[in-house]
Design a protein that fits this description.
two-stranded antiparallel ribbon, 6-stranded antiparallel beta sheet, globular, 163 residues, 8 strands, Alpha-Beta Plaits, alpha+beta
Length: 163
């Protein structure tokens, strides 16, 4: 584990089963990762599948402070996905839960297992809009124009959801 916490951003999405509940449970699971604290979360958004199949997605982005290294954080995220029943039968298959590490501090990493920052974060409305909720300085108006053709809807909060 690292001594000083690093701020990281995680995209969450699901489009199978109770997708909204899966994303909310994943937000809680992020807080239970050793050495990690959730310091912000976006609203929930509904989006049509983008380069994927199946029903609409529920998406969010969480800001976390973590003492884990980026590869260890990725392992923890994949463990949460697996606990939620994530299967990977083919590329862009519908998913019970998808957790993507978007940013890990200012780290730049390019490996077969992990690329940071996430290589396609600027191409996806389902990342940009929730990311703007928790890191507005990172998302430019030009970024949002670039994804204007992708349908996205900010969902109203439900009483029982996390604050």
């Amino acid at each position: 584990m690292l001594r000083d916490p690093v701020t990281a951003y995680v995209a969450l999405g699901a489009n199978l089963g109770q997708a909204r509940a899966a994303v909310l449970q994943a937000l809680q699971a992020l807080a239970s990762i050793s050495g990690t604290q959730v310091t912000g979360r976006s609203a929930l958004y509904r989006t049509a599948p983008y380069e994927a199949q199946g029903p609409d997605f529920i998406n969010a982005v969480a800001r976390i402070d973590t003492r884990l290294t980026a590869p260890d954080l990725l392992d923890a995220l994949q463990a949460i996905e697996n606990q939620a029943g994530r299967l990977r039968p083919y590329l862009n298959a519908p998913r019970s839960l998808d957790l993507d590490l978007l940013f890990y501090g200012d780290a730049q990493m390019h490996s077969p297992r992990l690329n940071l920052p996430h290589p396609r974060w600027r191409e996806r409305a389902f990342v940009l809009y929730p990311l703007a909720d928790v890191w507005p300085q990172r998302v430019s108006p030009q970024d949002l124009v670039r994804v204007a053709d992708q349908a996205i809807e900010r969902l109203p909060p439900m009483d029982q959801e996390l604050p």
